[in-house]
Amino acid sequence: MARTRHYKKIEKNFVTRLGHGVGAFFCAIGRGFVKFFHIFDKKLTIMVVPHSNGRVINLQTNVFAVLMGFVVVVGIILSFIPFTRRSASSSVEISRLRDENRETLASLDELRDENNTLLQTAKRFQTSLSQSLSLLGINQSEQTTKSTGSNSDLASLFDTQDLASGTLRETVDIKQLTSYLESAVQPVEQIGKMLQSQGEFFTDIPNIWPVKNGIGHISMPFGQNVHPITGLWYIHRGIDFSTYRSGDGVMATANGQVVTVGYDDGYGNYVVIKHKHGIYTRYAHLGTVRVEKGDQVSQRQIIGTIGNTGISTGPHLHYEIHIGSDVVDPSPYINIK
């Protein structure tokens, strides 16, 4: 029992000392806080003394208010840092956008100049196309009516009122120009078809220089001339082409059929080709002949070579065109295209 009472006494003393220690610790903390707040509660007097003989201004405050004022000022200054950064970034972005805007305006001015040039070119194209269609006998009334109804005629493009400014006007002009060019496709296709049919027609009538590669010159024209051998005036029934040499290729001047291949004392070696529309061509004084009677020949096909056969003073080609029973001047038919 005595030992138990001894232990309880020790335990009681320990608890008592622990309680006193904890109480002393919290009292010390409390006194520290009180001292700390006493420091902040110290009074300060700020005096503003003017250089003149004016009134001295006294401002009474405490340490806590000064510290809080300092913290507020520092906070305000720090808050301006990100704003300043954003402002600098915005200034850089604005400068970049200004540069892009200047470049865009320069490109827009160039686009306007090119658009004006395009419109002027289109106007000349319209005039030329109208004249060409008139010469070819193509009726434009239907296309014009359609274009007028859809406001796509180029004339309406140049008479368009200023409905807008800037790029909108250029866009309207380009759209109307595109519409007009689309409407011009049909007459241009008609011109192409006409030229194609005429090209087929031109291959059936004599219309090219009969010497290969267009070389040589006319040594004697059609009509009244002095005969190079007899020295007498006579009617030359064709045109003489000379290259000052033998062996140059002689071409058929149109599609046709070879009806005669022979030799004559006057013409020497010669070839006669029958073409459509009652037209015949004769090629005389040939050195060699490369076709036979009955052959179908095409325009520009080599039928022989220039020679000096028959009555001739030198290598040359004698070329004639017959329409029915009449002999005609070949000159208007050379390069008629």
Topology record:
Blueprint: H1 2-40, E1 43-48, E2 57-62, H2 63-136, H3 141-149, H4 154-158, H5 167-183, H6 185-202, E3 217-220, E4 223-226, E5 233-236, E6 239-242, E7 249-251, E8 256-264, E9 268-274, E10 279-289, E11 296-297, E12 302-306, E13 317-323, E14 326-328
Description:
The longest helix is centred in the first third of the chain and has 74 residues, at 63-136. The model is unreliable at 142-153 and 155-164 (pLDDT under 50). A hairpin with an 8-residue loop joins strand 1 and strand 2. This protein has helices at 2-40, 63-136, 141-149, 154-158, 167-183, 185-202, and strands at residues 43-48, 57-62, 217-220, 223-226, 233-236, 239-242, 249-251, 256-264, 268-274, 279-289, 296-297, 302-306, 317-323, 326-328. With 337 residues, it is an alpha+beta fold.
